[in-house]
């Protein structure tokens, strides 16, 4: 047996041990809870962590376990040189986490972001968004890798396995930016509209300190952009019979500081006209022609904020009820 084979076996057992430790920790946490405590947790999760998000979390854990099989990565992760004929890796790559840290971070992010978005979008639209953004992000990465290979002739762009849920998660953050842009995150003291931009900025800064993390940057950037493309131009709005969100508050330039926005708007003008023009054709039979109303906000932006405000209010009320029930139980136990 060669030294390389021995190292692979050691690494494989190490990953299995870390995964088993993580799962064992979760199981032990649930075992320590009584029936009433489990019921309380379930009541708390019901208005927040949805069944779909919990199901996706299980998929991420399962995907991480599967890729510990040495040959699984070459079939499930995105390897540009093997995408043809293994085209399914454009879909599977987004749900494959190669590190336990990626599993934990993405599951936590999915549960908390999903509990804000899914009640507003609906389960079907939420799942559709994940599928479309995942596929487009993988295709964007595939195209970029092939282009880099032709420019540099370095085979690492063709054979490096790329996978992870971070592209989808960054796209979901764009949904938070759209629905509750002015909601302030108390633990960060920033508005939600800056979340996608700050995540990319943080990833860029970390990549200078830890060079290995630079591999996540293309996925984060592509996921953010594809999430914006979907929400800006393709997501159907039943209440307005429109597709997308044409409001100025959700323009591409809003991802950047104010002093850069005129330059960004000029660069994106042609693309904006192309897609917005199609959305406003007379054959669409919309009840209004212009995308904005005489007021300071568009109809769509106003309704979006109302939905976001209602969802936040419902979650706060649910949290207050749960806290009150826990207080009563504690008093009763005393």
What helical percentage do the residues reach? 55-70%
Q: Strand-residue fraction?
A: under 5%
What's the total count of β strands?
Answer: 4
Spell the H/E element sequence: HHHHHHHHHEEHHEEHHH
Separation of the first and last Cα atoms:
64 Å
Structural class: mainly alpha
Rg:
22 Å
Short description:
This protein is mainly α and 334 residues long. The chain contains 14 helices and four strands. A two-stranded antiparallel ribbon has the order 1-2. The chain has a two-stranded antiparallel ribbon with strand order 3-4.
Structure, explained:
Keywords: Membrane, Transmembrane, Transmembrane helix. Pfam families: DUF1751. It is a multi-pass membrane protein. It is a single chain. This protein is mainly alpha-helical and 334 residues long. 66% of the residues lie in helices and 2% in strands. The strands form two sheets. A two-stranded antiparallel sheet has the order 1-2. A two-stranded antiparallel sheet has the order 3-4. Helix 3 runs antiparallel to helix 6 and helix 10 (195-209) packs antiparallel against helix 11. The radius of gyration is 22 Å and the shape is globular. Mean pLDDT is 76; it is low at 4-16, 25-47 and 279-297.
